[in-house]
Structures are given as C-alpha cells and as structure tokens.
Amino acid sequence: MDTFIALAAATLNAGTPLVLAAIGVLVCERSGVVNLGVEGLMLVAAVAGFAAVHASGSYVLGFASGALAGMALAGFFALFAVVLNANQYASGLALALLGAGLSAFVGLPFAGSSLPPRSADALPLLGELPLLAPLFRLHPLVYLAWLLVLATAWFLFRTRAGLALRAIGETPASAFALGYRVRSWRVGAVLFGGLTAGLAGAYLATIYTPLWSEGMVAGRGWIALALVVFATWHPGRVVIGAYLFGGVTMLQLFLQARGLAIIPEGLSMLPYVATIAVLAVLSRDARWIRVHMPASLGRPFDPER
C-alpha cells in the first residue's frame, strides 16, 4: 500500500504540467484557434522560470516569470494567427521551433546549475495523515491545477462569457453579428493558453526536475495537444488523460527501479506509445470527434469579409 500511495503521489506530480498546459490549449481551441506551439511556449517558460529562481532565489518570481514568458510568446503567435490571419498551423509550428531554439540559446549559461533549497511542501493537518500523507505533501500548484480545471469548466458551461467564447469557436460570424469582438476574444484565449503553458514550463524546471537542460519539456507540449482531443474538449476529461500519461510515466520509472528485464529505451517510449494508442482508438470514430470539436477550429476570421 505504501508503494501504491507513493506511485499515486508521483503520478499527480508528473501529471500537473500536462493538466496546466492542456487546460490552456482547451480554452484556446474552444475559441477556434489551434496553437501547435505549446512545446515552444513551455520551453521558453521553463528557462525563464529557472533563470528567475537562480538569480533571485524566489520560486514565486520564477512562476511569474514563466507565466509572463509564455504569455509574451503566445501574444506573438496571436499577432500573426489571429490579427493578421496567418495560417494557424504554420504559425504554431514556427512558434514551436522558435521556442526550442530560443530556449536552447538563452539556457546555455544555466546548464548544470542548481537552484536554492526550498521548504518542504505539505498541506496543513492533511500532510500529517498516516499512510495518505504523500498525497498531501506535493507542491501547492498541484492542487491549484485542480481548482483551475473546475474554474474553467464553470466558466465555459455556467457563465455568459463562456457561452460567448464557445459560440465564437463554433460560428464566429454569428457571434460577430451579435456584437462580440471575435478577434479580441480569441487573443484573450490564446494569452490564457500561454499563461498556463508558462506555469507548466516553470513547474517542470523548478519543481518537477529542478534543473535546466535543452529540450527538457520532452514532448509534453505535443502530448497536451493530444490530450485535448482525447478529452473531446471537456475540462474534466483533460484531468483523466493528464494523470493517465503521468501514471504511465511513473510506472516505467518504477519498473526500471524494480529491474524489469526490458531495455530502458523501451520503457521510456511507453508513455508516448500509450498516448498514440489511445488517440488511434479514438480516431476510429471520426464522427464522434467532429460532434465535439469546435466547428471553426483552425479557421481565421476576418470581420471585413
């Protein structure tokens, strides 16, 4: 049981960056914008967060720097994809490449550096429970990610603003005719996605693996994009997918520690193979995906046409 609780706690820790990144992708795509540059956003935010903590010793400043870096790069994407009506897929891929190159260049001085120690994480009282204590000794952002998912679900399905955002993702021309500034809403959704991707990147570099190395996001940005399809654009199912991936990631480390007679490269591939397998199964029913997918996803909107 102790091993199971420890594995569950590690799963929550590993899944948190995916929850944060995927919930931002979901809001962005609900507005009708596809941002394939999440990997680049997370990389730039990771090096920004690590650099801020390394220089100041403040982890709060590190998360703020990561969030701002993610939003800044997302705003750059929004300028081209939303305001100038550039192809969203091409712009997103360019953003992913830009983020990878920029983070590698900026992060050169920080390779091999360490961060200052921080106090142990624990929720009051709950962190002292017998047996279950490891589940409540995680970084506060793990629990804040759950609140973010609940707040996003409430916003999308229980508020007038959320209804407007979903309408913009479905039929932007109709929403514009009703007086909504479609481009402004979409830019806001893209910036929100940049903020959450920034938090995810900063969490990876300062909490999950407190170090900086080139390409350390390791495909999690692409997994976050896949998780939104897996979740059929619903916040609750994003959490399931994120922790499923996190659980498989931790399971392969657990199996390696137990000396399972499988080549390490095969175990490292396991989380990504599992994600591809799930997406392949879901894609067999294209009609089911089309029913849930925002109708104007990936389509630019020009109010003058």
What structural keywords apply?
ABC transporter involved in vitamin B12 uptake, BtuC
Overview of the molecule:
The protein is an all-alpha fold. It has a single domain (2-292), classed as Orthogonal Bundle (ABC transporter involved in vitamin B12 uptake, BtuC), CATH 1.10.3470. 70% of the residues lie in helices and 0% in strands. The protein is built from twelve helices and no strands. The chain has helices at 2-30, 38-56, 59-83, 88-106, 140-158, 160-170, 172-177, 182-208, 220-230, 235-257, 264-282, 286-292. Helix 1 (2-30) runs antiparallel to helix 10 (235-257).
pLDDT averaged over residues? 89
Runs in which pLDDT lies below 50 for 5 or more consecutive residues are none
CATH topology: ABC transporter involved in vitamin B12 uptake, BtuC
Gross morphology is globular
Helix content: over 70%
From the helix content, strand content and strand pairing, which structural class follows? Answer: mainly alpha
Can you count the beta strands?
0
Task: Examine the secondary-structure arrangement and name the CATH architecture.
Answer: Orthogonal Bundle
| SS field, number of helical segments | 12
How many structural domains?
Answer: 1
Written as H for each helix and E for each strand, in order along the chain, the element string is HHHHHHHHHHHH
Identify the quaternary structure here. single chain
CATH class: Mainly Alpha
N-to-C span: 62 Å
Which value, in Å, is the CA radius of gyration?
A: 20 Å
Q: Please give the largest β-sheet.
A: none
Strand content: under 5%
